[in-house]
Amino acid sequence: MPVAADPNFFYSRFNRVIAVVFATVAALSALSVVLLPTASNRWLAVPALFVILFVWEVLWRPDLRVSDEAITIHNPLRTIIVPWAALVHVDTKFALTLHTPGRKFAVYCAPAPGRSLTSSGRRKSTDPVPYVSGSPRPGDLPGSESGEAAQLVRARWDLLQKTGRVDGGLAAQTPVAVVWAWGRAGVLAVGAAASVVAILLS
After folding, report:
1. Beta bridge partners of 81
2. Neighbouring residues of 158: CB distance < 8 A, sequence distance ≥ 6
3. Domain ranges of the chain
4. Is the pLDDT of residue 64 over 50?
5. Do the beta carbons of residue 109 and residue 77 sit within 8 Å?
6. pLDDT score of 197
7. CA angle, 32 as apex, 29 and 35 as ends, to 5°?
């Protein structure tokens, strides 16, 4: 019986590069304020630190984890756990999106490619684009973030179905857990408000 790596992780490499750039600039700004304090700039350390916190939450932290038990989506400020028995469809129209009965959950770290990237990907790729729901999606292009993430999900789903580890017909009765990070949301709200005040005081 084939065994998949458990869990598989996926994150946006582009988002993490952007996060590092913004966080580095913000950290250097905060450091300069600490090393060269003046009456006019001392408060600017607050928005600089807020930028670091914001890019961590929005750009660095989001990821997708695919295990034999469930698909776990870490989106900004919320975590969604989709058991395999609840999954009914995988789509990539605007981003990797997991469908369950009456609900759908977009994966923040796996957006579909833009129009220019789609055209470039079609010219360069020699691999066939998967056929999904009657027509191939640009988001299924090999090398796109949505395509790579979708492949992780579909490959594991197919394996679990073939080995009899997913019970069919139970989607409507299988709950999906959605957990909101109210604590982090509160910290971001306070940080944003403090940053506005700090800018006004500078």
Report:
1. 72, 177
2. none
3. 11-201
4. yes
5. no
6. 93
7. 155
